[in-house]
Amino acid sequence: MQIQLMKSKIHRVKVTQAELHYVGSITIDEDLMDAAHLIENEKVQIVNVNNGERLETYVIKGERGSGQICLNGPAARKVAVGDIVIIISYAGMELEEAKEFKPVVIFPDDQNKLI
Hints:
It is found in: Cytoplasm. Belongs to the PanD family. The active site is at residues 25, 58. The chain has one domain: Barwin-like endoglucanases (Beta Barrel). The protein is built from 2 helices and 8 strands; from the N terminus they run βββαββββαβ. It has helices spanning 30-35, 95-100; strands at residues 2-14, 17-19, 25-29, 43-48, 54-62, 69-72, 84-94, 104-106. The chain has an 8-stranded mixed β-sheet. The longest helix is centred in the N-terminal third of the chain and has 6 residues, at 30-35. The chain is globular, with a radius of gyration of 14 Å.
């Protein structure tokens, strides 16, 4: 039996853009992606601290070192520029593996830069 476990989390980053007329996804600074062990097209959950909205989408690479966090397509309606969001990825694991697994959690600064 597999269970779903938090694989990684980017805790409290600021939304820098919201692009409604885009195919869809979340654009994340590649430095943050690397630190959080996220890959392009990976499914993530977005939790908006400001308004309580939760949504799922997939990751696309943003410019490295830019601090970019951009919600694209319909997800843009769930955020405002300046909102604080938490980005969470999950992985399926066997129960015994899950008991030993340690997720990656990063805490960027208020400019979405790694501390």
